[in-house]
Design brief:
single chain, alpha+beta, 6-stranded antiparallel sheet, 35% helix, 16% strand
Length: 817
């Protein structure tokens, strides 16, 4: 074959092969492109942007008390953001945002060159705001070339479909800022405790510096790096012309102060309540809607009363703890180790040596010396911070003992030894009062005033308080323990404990409904019977004495055990259980006479709710926690939600009565109220301390035989409150720690505030009730006896004076308070 022909054939073959290669490459490229775009997310989903939002819980006045979320986010329109906030993000993340069409090719080249010079290490990124939005909302976070190409394709499409303003709106509400915060509104709230519209240029620069690496530049975790990043953002804002030189200098010179949202303190105070609301709503409307729906939950809680409840419970538990004594130091170190321990405590206490000791939190200290002559101990909080503890401020610190009455120590060395690590709280002593003059109101604390130091021992006991509005059943306050952060177990709702004598009113209410009256004579005599296991049961009165014949009114007022057992036996235990069930007690109750002394566990919620039937004239009540729930668009999706107490309900028992349903006659309810007033009015009544309120109130103490539980449930015509105190371990509270001593003072401190702004009102007397004077000893009618209410037709048999109608009684002053 001639050379020229052969060359021509080769040339044609090469051209053919090249054409095939080009066709193949094109097909491969087409196949690759199709693979990249075939399943790209649909951008139409972004047109109705409805991200997960924080659900906010508010009290009855609209004050925030808690929040639920998967992503903490509050949606804010772009037009509501200050210009310097938007400018800070553009300067920090994408200075050509308004010029490019989704991809900044020049930035890609700069970043590639920078990373190449760094040996391949990724030091500089080139993602635009649009690309970051695509990555956070539409794609997985994996770092592969495949995902990066898809990101660029979507960024271009996003720019074609949405305006720059719409993209910014999505980005600024979607971006993650660490600490669980999403979006600029939540970031401003998290770091500065304020609305995003109120942050200044320096604050805006700080949060705008976070998206690049939220954990690395977090001011909470890495304040030095965060400040460097903030300075960089300010410089970029100056270079871009977003701020002038004067603004830049002022912002750069003043690092912003971090502040937690002010309502977080209230979140802690209301934590037990809001956790019950969360459980209730998870059951009623579902967890996803609660955690992601941006709901507004309007609750029944009164925040002011909740603060009072927390303070009252803690004060009562501390008082009990002091009566039990001092459990000793947190730890003890050798004298040679004291300097090292002082340094460790200094880091933990984080004190300013130039400032006065704070009074709003306990501090750790080590005892450096004990002066037995001056009866004081020297302590150190940090290398440059010391103080002294006086004997009079720790004189309660006897060795821990629940078997004997409390006594005051006489020597500081009884409590303190060198090397003891203790918890102390600084306080400002009240001004001295001249002898013979009444104590003046305490002045507001002086931030730089003198400080004294007292032991701050955390109580070993626990407690709970629940308060309801009588008329509506709305929960005004709920405290389920000393500190929710340490124990989330809600002792107001979840703990089932023996109610002791606080169950007795159900026995007496049953008797009133079956023909007994306040002056009926009961027998306080010994009871001996088998307890069901073959052993003999010999219940005793608290004072170990028997009073013989006694009126029903006095028996309940003085909480006489054996008289109550005889009464339960006479009226029938089955009838007592029937009444308790009707009032809403759901706990397991068995037909055993020990039920009269509260041997079967109940919750504080069901006991308080059952008591509420009495001041409600016999109408059942539900414990309402939620007034209404609004979705993110303001539509009401639930209202009037009540919580049913969990319990070991006996099989086949009827459900709780509905709110407003009549469960006992109004006359029976009123007569029970009057008996419960006697526990407070009687000179020897177990609830006598409640007379300090100087208004009509009623209630009953409760103490178990082993003194492991102390109760007081009491009410006015408007508010009912129950208190329980005890160890979680069911250990003995201590000698003399009855319901009247351990629980009633807490109830009283709370009710003083709860009733302070309410007019004094008496319990309304229903029709069918008449009044007559009765001899308190014999129970017979007497013209000079005590004025008591009776159901019509049930006056005592012996008559020494006429009955007074309810109408006439309303014109008379009924009783002294």
């Amino acid at each position: 074959m001639p050379r020229s022909r052969a060359g021509s054939v080769v040339l044609r073959l090469l051209v053919g092969l090249l054409a095939l290669l080009l066709l193949g490459s094109g097909a491969a490229a087409g196949f690759l492109y199709h693979g990249l775009v075939a399943d790209l997310p649909d951008l139409r989903n972004l047109e109705d942007y409805r991200p997960a939002l924080t659900t906010t819980v508010v009290d009855r006045s609209g004050r925030p008390i808690g929040e639920f979320f998967e992503e903490r986010r509050r949606l804010v329109p772009l037009e509501d953001l200050p210009l310097h906030v938007v400018s800070a993000f553009i300067a920090a993340e994408d200075d050509t945002f308004f010029e490019h069409s989704g991809i900044d090719y020049a930035s890609i080249v700069r970043a590639a060159w920078s990373n190449l010079r760094a040996g391949g290490e990724i030091r500089q990124g080139a993602s635009t705001i649009t690309q970051q939005l695509v990555k956070s909302m539409l794609l997985s976070p994996e770092r592969t070339w495949h995902r990066k190409v898809r990101e660029m394709l979507l960024a271009r499409r996003l720019e074609e479909r949405f305006t720059k303003e719409q993209i910014l709106h999505l980005y600024l509400n979607q971006i993650y800022f660490v600490s669980g915060a999403y979006g600029v509104a939540e970031a401003a709230r998290t770091y500065f405790g304020k609305d995003v519209g109120a942050i200044d240029v320096g604050e805006a620069a700080l949060i705008a510096g976070l998206p690049k690496a939220p954990s690395r530049f977090s001011p909470l975790r890495n304040p030095v790096r965060a400040e460097r990043r903030r300075q960089y953002v300010l410089e970029r804002m100056l270079e871009e012309g977003s701020i002038d030189e004067v603004t830049y200098e002022a912002a750069a010179a003043t690092p912003p102060a971090l502040h937690a949202p002010p309502e977080h303190a209230d979140y802690a105070e209301a934590a037990y309540f809001t956790e019950e609301v969360r459980r209730l709503l998870f059951e009623r409307i579902g967890g996803e809607q609660v955690l992601r729906g941006g709901l507004r939950i309007e609750t029944t809680l009164d925040l002011e009363l909740q603060r009072t409840a927390v303070a009252a419970l803690r004060a009562g538990l501390h008082a009990l703890d002091h009566r039990q004594g001092y459990r000793g130091p947190l730890r003890r170190v050798e004298r040679a180790e004291i300097p090292d321990e002082v340094a460790r405590l200094g880091a933990e206490n984080a004190l300013d040596p130039a400032a006065a000791l704070p009074t709003d939190r306990p501090l750790l200290a080590i005892v450096t010396a004990v002066d037995e002559r001056a009866q004081r101990a020297s302590v150190a909080f940090a290398p440059d911070v010391a103080g002294e503890v006086l004997l009079e401020d720790v004189d309660w610190a006897r060795p821990f003992n629940t078997e004997s009455e409390p006594w005051k120590i006489q020597k500081i060395a009884t409590a303190f030894h060198a090397g003891d690590v203790v918890r102390l709280r600084a306080f400002q002593p009240p001004p001295p009062t001249p002898k013979g003059e009444p104590a003046a109101p305490a002045p507001p604390p002086d931030p730089n005033g003198p400080r004294r130091l007292a032991l701050d021992q955390k109580p070993g006991t626990q407690g709970a308080l629940l308060s309801l509005d009588v008329a509506s059943g709305e929960v005004l306050s709920l405290v389920g323990g000393y500190d929710f952060a340490e124990s989330e177990f809600d002792r107001a709702v979840q703990a089932e404990r023996q109610p002791g004598s606080s169950f007795k009113p159900f026995v007496y209410a049953t008797a009133l409904g079956r023909g007994w009256n306040a002056s009926s004579i009961l027998q306080d005599t010994p009871v001996v019977m088998e307890d069901g296991s073959g052993k003999l049961w010999r219940p005793q009165n608290y004072n170990r004495k028997f009073l013989g014949p006694i009126t029903m009114r006095e028996a309940l007022a003085r909480s006489i055990n054996n008289a109550t057992i005889h009464l339960a036996n006479d009226v029938g235990v089955d009838h007592v259980i029937e009444l308790a069930r009707g009032l809403g007690v759901r706990a397991l109750l068995e037909p055993n006479l020990s039920i009269a002394l509260g041997s079967y566990p109940v919750t504080l919620l069901e006991l308080t709710r059952a008591y509420a039937v009495f001041p409600r004239a016999g109408l059942a009540v539900e414990a309402r926690f939620v007034l209404r729930v609004l979705d993110r668009d303001g539509r009401v999706i639930a209202e009037g939600l009540a919580l049913e107490p969990p319990s070991a309900l006996a099989p086949g028992a009827l459900p709780s009565p509905r709110a407003g349903e009549r469960v006992i006659p109004a006359t029976q309810a009123f007569l029970t109220v009057d008996l419960l007033r006697a526990t407070i009015q009687h000179p020897n009544g177990t609830g006598g301390k409640a007379r300090a309120l100087e208004r009509p109130v009623a209630g009953k103490t409760g103490t178990t035989n082993s003194q492991a539980d102390a109760w007081f449930v009491g009410f006015s015509p408007e508010v009912i409150t129950g208190v329980w105190v005890g160890f979680d371990s069911k250990d003995v509270l201590g000698k003399g720690e009855t319901g009247g001593r351990a629980a009633l003072p807490i109830w009283l401190d709370y009710m003083k505030v709860a009733l302070a702004n309410r007019p004094v009102a008496d319990f309304e007397v229903p029709e069918g009730v008449v009044f007559a004077r009765v001899d308190p000893q014999s129970g017979g009618l007497s013209s000079s006896g005590q004025l008591l209410p009776f159901a019509e037709g049930q006056l005592p048999r012996a008559s020494a004076g006429p009955a007074i109608s309810a109408t006439e009684q309303r014109r008379m002053e009924r009783l002294d308070f």
